[in-house]
Specification:
The complex is a heterodimer of chains A (487) and B (174). Chain A is α+β, with helices and mostly antiparallel strands and 487 residues long. Chain A contains 5 helices and 29 strands. In chain A, strands 19, 20, 21, 22 and 23 form a 5-stranded antiparallel beta sheet that branches. A 4-stranded antiparallel beta sheet of chain A has the order 4-3-2-28. A 4-stranded antiparallel beta sheet of chain A has the order 5-6-7-8, with no helix packed on it. With 174 residues, chain B is mainly alpha-helical. Helices cover 71% and strands 0% of the residues of chain B. In chain B, helix 1 packs antiparallel against helix 2 and helix 2 crosses helix 4. The chains are: A alpha+beta (487), B mainly alpha (174). At the A-B interface, helix 1, helix 2 and helix 5 of A face helix 1, helix 2, helix 5, helix 6 and helix 9 of B.
């Protein structure tokens, strides 16, 4: 019976004469072959080009192709906001940094849902921008994230498994330290000039208390951390409620590291490294230790800043109208002493970082955040993340003039500078723009929505073109009548 | 003989047979001619390699059958595969022609791969192994497709029971 099916199919097949070919298959086939070869060649060439350009871009982005750090070493004349997806220090270490900065905008503050709320930008001495990420905690450069004097390390006490963490910017490694009491939290206050020790604010070592409004109150104390051994020593107990401290004026190391000026309430004390008080005096509510760079270069005087203007309950206008004047204390006795008359500085706060060439006080000037006034009873920190507006790096010369060393974008609300560059007067180095690569995977959040429409349009165009060509080929066959019936 | 000459010689010698197979596969003359054209163009692109392998026939056959399925999927999903093709309205009283029409109508109701299996097995007289090689599938797939195709033919065209009966099924086992 299968033979009959064969016969039937054969008879049916006989009805089809030899196909009339619409075009010479040999010529068409060979043309397609040449086109395919050309297309393959072009694609290969593009792939090679993209590969070469991509690799070189990534290498340039990673710093492998940049000039040696020494070529442009110094605090850059200008800084720019980092990309939202800027690579981290761990991902691609930038080497010793010149500047740290934090603030707002997508580059400096993200959502913990897809990014990190706390983002500090690190500007390497080769010009690379890298990030330190602190999920769950908005962070301030020079405040709770501090750069070591040689620019190689960053100390931070933001949320994390350790009391305090030090990040090595040359390899991205992180070293955690334990505090004097388990479970307490540390915040860096000042690096010693040799980078071997840190003053750390310790808090949370006692059960949290709550005030009448339900706000928590944590006791705090000043501790000394020896970085080589990890040993800690309590220098000054009972600094007061952690959330109410003015962090810019907590403490400062003397240039040789043997003495520490420390504030508790309105009192300023000079301590040795064991916490022994050499002198102590009351400064009153309007005089503050100038910052962790308050000791003069020779260690003979301590700079304090006198506030002229609103002290409490200030609105944003009153905060902006504040003026700070630098005065001097004798480091040996704590008594007021004469010194260079520096220009008063207008702003919400002034924080001393150190001395350029031993003569000019380099400081960060904090402007008030418009619309963000101080409310009575609320926590307030003149240099805190939430309280600060834009910042400027300035130098106060002994001749009474002021020089703006760095004027960052408005979104920069905190700043820290490596002490070695500051003391050497290495400012105004050529600026580099942050490069988008290398990037964190977060870049996909931006790249995919941008690329998708392009991919769809190109895909549709290609499909349409292919369909048209195919239709053209199919329809090029001339209409034919049905084959004759077999006879 | 250079590549072009050998290709043209091959086409001249085989185009009639290819056309018949294409006609059985597509059930439509224009589509059959398109299928032959596409197949030969594709073969021409790789003719040297095809010849280097020896007999070009397996490659050509495989190309045509895979093109057939591809084209059907891509372009002719909405084609008029009538249960009763227009040609049915041309009875001439010849028993053989009537049967051919019924076979054609029944073939049109098969899926492309089922049609391909029947054409390979009963028109081109290939073994199951050769048919599997031409379709790029396993022998068991050829078997099952053949069985399903014949069952469908019997179901849709009871008048073909004699053609596709036990004997045809037995023919599968070759």
């Amino acid at each position: 019976m299968s033979e009959e099916l064969r016969t039937a199919l054969r008879e049916l097949g006989e009805r089809m004469p030899a196909a009339r070919l619409a075009s010479d298959p040999w010529l068409v086939g060979r043309r397609q072959r040449r086109r395919a070869a050309r297309r393959t060649g072009v694609v290969a060439m593009v792939a090679v080009l993209v590969g070469v350009l991509g690799v070189s871009a990534v290498l340039r982005g990673s710093g492998a192709g940049t000039m040696p750090a020494a070529a442009g070493e110094g605090v850059p004349e200008r800084i720019s906001l980092p990309w939202m997806w800027q690579a981290t220090v761990e991902q691609d270490p930038p080497g010793p940094a010149s500047v740290l900065f934090g603030g707002g905008g997508l580059g400096l503050r993200g959502s913990d849902f897809v990014d990190h709320e706390g983002k500090i930008a690190v500007v390497g001495r080769g010009g690379d921008y890298r990030m330190l990420l602190y999920g769950g905690a908005e962070s301030s450069a020079g405040d709770d994230v501090q750069l070591s004097p040689d620019g190689r390390y960053v100390a931070d006490g933001t949320l994390g498994p350790h009391w305090l963490t030090v990040t090595d910017l040359t390899d991205g490694s992180r070293r955690g330290f334990s505090g004097p009491t388990e479970g307490s939290s540390g915040t860096p206050v000042a690096w010693s000039r040799d980078g071997a020790a840190l003053l750390v604010l310790d808090a949370g070592y006692e059960p949290t208390r709550y005030d009448a409004r339900g706000w928590w109150r944590d006791a705090s104390r000043l501790t000394l951390l020896e970085l080589t051994t990890g040993a800690t020593r309590i220098l000054l107990d009972d600094l007061g409620d952690r959330q109410s401290l003015r962090t810019a004026s907590i403490a400062a190391f003397s240039p040789d590291g043997s003495r520490i000026a420390a504030t508790a309430g309105d009192r300023l004390s000079l301590l040795d490294r064991d916490g022994g008080a050499l002198w102590s005096r009351d400064l009153g509510p309007r005089r503050k230790l100038a910052g962790n760079g308050a000791f003069t270069a020779d260690g003979s005087r301590i700079a304090v800043v006198d506030l002229d203007g609103c002290l409490s309950g200030c609105d944003d206008a009153a905060l902006a109208a504040r003026s700070w004047t630098v005065t001097w204390l004798d480091a040996a006795t704590g008594q007021d002493v004469a010194g260079p008359t520096l220009a008063p500085v207008r702003g919400q706060a002034l924080r001393a970082l150190g001395w350029r060439h031993g003569t000019d006080l380099v400081a960060v000037r904090y402007e008030a955040d418009p619309g963000n006034g101080m409310r009575e009873g609320d926590y307030w920190n003149d240099t805190g993340y939430w309280e600060s507006g834009r910042v400027q790096l300035i130098a106060l010369r002994p001749d009474g003039t002021t020089e703006v060393l760095l004027d960052p974008p408005d979104e920069v609300w905190s700043l820290d500078v490596a002490r070695d560059l500051l003391e050497a007067g290495s400012f105004g180095a050529p600026a580099t723009e942050p490069r988008p690569f290398p990037a964190r995977p977060l870049i996909l959040l931006v790249a995919v929505p941008l690329a998708l429409p392009v991919v769809i349009v190109v895909g549709v165009l290609l499909l349409w073109r292919r369909h048209r060509r195919w239709l053209r080929m199919i329809r090029s066959t001339p209409p034919m009548t049905d084959p004759p019936w077999p006879t | 003989m250079d590549g072009e000459e050998s290709f043209r010689a091959y086409v001249a010698g085989r185009i009639a047979a290819l056309s018949r197979a294409a006609w059985l596969l597509t059930g439509d003359r224009h589509q059959a001619e398109d299928l032959v054209q596409l197949t030969l163009v594709r073969v021409a692109r790789h003719w040297e390699r095809v010849c280097a392998a020896g007999d070009p026939e397996p490659y050509v056959r495989r190309t045509m059958y895979s093109q057939h399925v591809t084209l059907w999927r891509r372009r002719w999903r909405g084609v008029d595969l009538h249960a009763d093709p227009p040609e049915q309205a041309m009875p001439d009283g010849t028993a053989g022609v009537a049967q051919a029409l019924v076979v054609r109508a029944a073939l049109a109701r098969l899926a492309p791969r089922q049609r391909a299996v029947l054409v390979l097995r009963f028109f081109e007289d290939l073994t199951e192994v050769e048919a599997a090689a031409a379709l790029g599938c396993s022998v068991s797939t050829v078997k099952s497709q053949t069985r399903d195709a014949l069952a469908r033919l019997r179901s849709h065209a009871p008048e073909l029971a004699e053609l596709v009966g036990v004997g045809a099924l037995a023919g599968e086992e070759r």
